[in-house]
Amino acid sequence: MYRFGGLYREVPIAVRAELDESARIVSLTIDEESCGSQGKSCDFACLERSLRDKLINRPFTEFSQIYKDAGTTGCLHVFEILSGASAFFAVLRDSGRDGGSEQELVKISSDAGGLIAENIHEVLGKTSVTNIDIRHNALPTFGKKGLPESMDAHLSVSVNGKTVSETDIKADDFPGCYSRLNRAYTRAYHAEKKFFAAGGKQRFSNLPSLVGLTVLALSREGMSGTFSRAAKLENILIFLQTGEGREGCIGFRKGLNMNQQYMLKAAAGAALGCAALALGIALKRRVRL
User: Fold this and answer.
1) Residue 146 dihedral angles phi and psi, to the nearest 5°
2) How far is CA 271 from the centre of its chain?
């Protein structure tokens, strides 16, 4: 669930992959109830077809290739889900387990002096807790896009009660803010990976994504309004997912015409409904829409 300004939006995305006995992908579907961060422009039917073309009959254990192919869709959410599932599947395989669970909860809140965040990550019964505390020495400033352009703050990051980063952040542009946060969160990522004894790239951890979530939280505090702030924050989210000047995901690009047709049909249906209602009133008949 994302919170934009005073609005809440649930963006659940469920991907189901069935494997044969040799761990090859035999079917792949995205649940029709899924909802993307770009709203109606997200076309999961299109993404689903693209993923099937790339991944059907591919061994789920080919993590590096899954990671690459899922990434070419340009959909950050589907990419994270599939690359994380493939990486966790490898952990189960390497440990000789037939099954297991992994779940993660991130909470970020603001107070008068800064931001605090907590990341709770459970893997195969073991739980790691990362705490982040940002104390402002001076309030951050923001550019036209709403991104932080300066920071003067003290940052403390701990994993399971042990400090992994304690530093002052002084930056006068967005890349500087982002890189200083990313450096500290990367240390937390490696500490968590060591705690879980996970080799290679632990793609089922959201700690690297905390940089983007922190930027969103900082930007939110620097904006006024409700609906306008929500719209600005969605634009920041798209920027964080796709980068400067890059196109949106395949489902967004190819699905746009489909969604325009959907909206036109919906508008036409509403117009016909209004006309029928007016006619029913004129004839003093009850009209059920």
Assistant:
1) 90, 0
2) 36
- Displacement of CA 106 from its chain's centroid (Å): 12
Among 191, 183, 185, residue whose Cα is nearest residue 161: 191
Total domains in the fold of the chain = 2
- For the entire predicted model, the pTM comes to 0.72
Q: Round the average pLDDT of the chain to a whole number and report it.
A: 75
Q: How far apart are CA 114 and CA 116, in angstroms?
A: 7
Shortest CA distance to 134 belongs to which of 157, 162, 161? 157
Q: Tokens 């920027």 correspond to what residue?
A: 239
State how far the Cα of 25 lies from the Cα of 35, in Å rounded to an integer. 24
CA 289 to chain centre: 38
pLDDT at position 165 = 94
Asked whether residue 58 falls in the same domain as residue 139, the answer is no
Same-domain check for residues 115 and 190: yes
Give the integer Cα–Cα distance in Å for 38 and 113.
32
Is 24 inside any structural domain?
yes
Distance separating alpha carbons of residues 38 and 235, to the nearest angstrom: 9
Residue 231 lies in a domain: no
